[in-house]
Amino acid sequence: MQFFPAALQNLTDQFARLPGIGGKTAQRLAFHVLSLPVEDAQAFADAILEAKKEVHTCPCCQNLTDRELCPICDDDMRDRSVICVVAEPKDVIAMERSREFRGVYHVLHGVISPLNHVTQDDIRIKELLIRVGSGEVREVIMATNPDTEGEATAMYISRLLRPMEVKVTRLAYGVPVGSQLEYADEVTLSRALEGRQEI
Fold this sequence. Notes:
There is one protein chain. The chain has 199 residues and is an alpha/beta fold. The protein folds into two domains: 6-54, RecR Domain 1 (Helicase, Ruva Protein, domain 3, Orthogonal Bundle), CATH 1.10.8.420; 64-198, Dna Topoisomerase Vi A Subunit, Chain: A, domain 2. 41% of the residues lie in helices and 14% in strands. It has helices at 6-16, 23-35, 38-54, 89-97, 125-133, 148-161, 186-194, and strands spanning 56-57, 64-65, 79-86, 103-107, 139-142, 167-170, 197-198. The strands form two sheets. A five-stranded mixed sheet has the order 4-3-5-6-7. The protein has a two-stranded antiparallel sheet with strand order 1-2. Helix 4 (89-97) links the parallel strand 3 and strand 4. Helix 1 (6-16) crosses helix 2. The termini are far apart.
């Protein structure tokens, strides 16, 4: 027996597809959207469509942008000889909060995770190798999360970079093992950057 109209159930199902959103939260969000004035609901829908249309990956670092290059790649004051490799675009925001890093980034858009059927070909490793192969990079900082998948990805990439004669470092463990970069505070990230080690 269906308790809700099909359109409401469909909206709930769409919210439930979002990461970290369970059935009850999805239902709450769907009811909230229904309670919005039509113009607010339209603005919400337009924001989703505009983001999908306008936002793309930076051709240099793979971060998200709505311009030709992301603001970091477009900044002449950044040190292009040091690349900080992160798993997701949200990790760039976390690193930038520390105000310690003045290099550039490379966003992998995931980590190697055999259990989730994510291989090295599914993330942006080839693009990183092309950047490092240009010859102007002297250090690559692996800033993937300190969990099993993040460690495996860092080690895999470091092995690929070894023949290129570039220094490869890993964030020091100021960031707790098993945590996520986006939840680390500025001081923890600053100490992790200062204490990074070659791998």
